[in-house]
Amino acid sequence: MKKKILLSVTFLGIITLSACSSTKNSDEKTQKHSVTSSSTQKSLSRSKSTSSSRNNATASSQTEKSSTGNISKSSTFPLSGYSSEQIEYARVTETLLNYYKIQHRPVSIEVTKNGTNHPVFPFSGSVVVPRDTVTLSFSYDHTMAGTSTVTYSSNHNGTINFYKDPNHYQDVRYLQDPVWVKQESQKLLDSTQLIEIPTSFDKQASQIISEIVIK
Q1: Is the Cα dihedral 74, 76, 78, 82 positive or negative?
Q2: In the chain, fewer beta carbons within 10 Å around the N or the C end?
Q3: pTM of the full predicted structure?
Q4: Do 166 and 174 meet the contact criterion of CB atoms below 8 Å apart?
Q5: What are the angstrom distances between the C-alpha of 189 and each of 12, 60, 127, 128, 214?
Q6: Tens digit of pLDDT for each residue in 106-118?
Q7: Selection from 200, 115, 107 nearest residue 151 by Cα
Q8: pLDDT digits (tens, 9 = 90+) for 185-204
């Protein structure tokens, strides 16, 4: 009888120890899983944060480059937005202002396109210019004394041939003496000068180009 009781007690002890061991192993696995899951979430969170920071930095860099590019383009070509003709007239005007040492900014710039065989003087007997020409008339005070009139022809290589027209025609011989008119007009045509039209005056030209009126 005693042997049966001892065997029963021993059997119950073994079952109890087995159950405790199983519970302990289960708890350890649960803890390990919890730690692993937490570590993985932290790693993913750091990865997302790093990726977001890199994307923001890249976007910021691209925006800065784009903005700098726009400023650079605008500052290197102040005559952008105007036609090639307007740019030519503005550059020629600014070059002539510098050539004649005129310090005042023009308040009006009138452009007249002349065809071939345009007369040097608008009177009978005048010699003609056998090329297409342009007459520029620019004034800084709308007076005769403050107005300069220049006729030029482009050589299409960055240079022009030009002569300065008279400010007025008060001599009666313009109307009465064609021979004299021919001689005087030939003298003026022979005084034609060659000058290079640079781009170094573009900033100044951009300040007067809006005043150009093409007839």
Answers
A1: negative
A2: N
A3: 0.65
A4: no
A5: 133, 62, 8, 9, 24
A6: 999 999 999 999 9
A7: 115
A8: 999 999 999 999 999 999 99
